[in-house]
Amino acid sequence: MGRDFSGGNKIVLVSDRSGSQEIYISAADGSNLLQITHFGVAHAPESPRWSPDGQQIVFDAVDQGHTTIFALQADGGTPRRLSDSSTDHVNPTWSRDGQWLYFASSRSGQWQMWKMPSSGGAAVQLTHQGGFVGYESADGKRLYYAKTASEPDIWVLNLEDDTEGPVSPSVHLDQSTAWSMTDHGILFIPKSSGSHAGLRYLDLAKGRISDLTVLPEQFWRAWVSSSRNGRIALYERIDSRTSNVVVVDHFR
After folding, report:
1. Do residues 114 and 105 lie in contact, with contact meaning Cβ atoms separated by under 8 Å?
2. Measuring CA to CA, how many Å separate 116 from each of 83, 84, 103, 185?
3. CA 80 to chain centre
4. 118 vs 126: CA distance, rounded Å
5. What's the pTM?
6. Other Cβ atoms within 10 Å of 129 Cβ, number
7. Burial state string for 16-42 with b = 16 or more CB within 10 A and e = fewer than 16
8. Pick from 55, 48, 54: nearest CA to 92
9. Which of 88, 161, 173, 184 matches a 20 to 30 Å C-alpha distance to 155?
């Protein structure tokens, strides 16, 4: 299984092929796969993201009973814990200049978007009406974010005057992580009851949503990612399903 993100000509992903959930990097075509974390079963790293310069990867993982944010050099080494372990912090993403990390935290009593220096340090709360995963706009003036895990609509926070509200036209996501920011818009999987998911794109300058493609039936709706130029999209797909039949003797 994997949660993939494109950074330049490489991909960072999560896989349990070693027996525990770990982070790997590979070439864009999937070759040269390299495991770069060795946490073990208890930590379950998730949500890896490349830094803008491609030198670091930030992610969340379980530490001392809470989900915590870590950073790691792209060539491996020892992960550095950036947030404390007194509450949960998830879904870290980078500012465009690499100086800040945006993330969701439950420290206020409900999930909200926060930011902290990318080297670690004091965090500042940004949203007050819910926030679960967010991306900074290309000009650094706005933060687009999925409002909550249970209400995955995309909202926008103006970082200059702290106003927040839903994007227009409205974007209703299938899952809170089923979207990604490009330089000019939002790539997303809309909430749908149909058997086939559709990939859609919101052009922020034109304020217009367009259909891009229908995804395979076995598509897994939990995760979508894209390159910043919008030329490459990544998503998870279920290639096979297995089940077991268990015989219970003398159950009556």
Report:
1. yes
2. 9, 12, 8, 25
3. 19
4. 16
5. 0.89
6. 14
7. eeeebbbbbbbeeeeeeeeebbebeee
8. 48
9. 88
Q: What is the distance between the alpha carbons of residues 235 and 215, in angstroms, rounded to a whole number?
A: 9
Are 24 and 35 within 8 A, CB to CB? yes
- According to DSSP, the residues that pair with 188 across neighbouring strands are 179, 200
What is the per-residue pLDDT across 66-94, written as a single tens digit (0 to 9) for each? 999 999 998 888 999 999 878 899 999 99
Token duo for residue 55: 């030198």
246: number of Cβ within 10 Å: 4
For domain 1-126, the CATH superfamily is TolB, C-terminal domain (2.120.10.30)
Domain ranges of the chain: 1-126
100-119 per-position pLDDT tens digit: 999 999 999 999 999 999 99
pLDDT of residue 4: 46
DSSP label at residue 216: P
C-alpha to C-alpha distance for 129 and 136, rounded to whole angstroms = 18
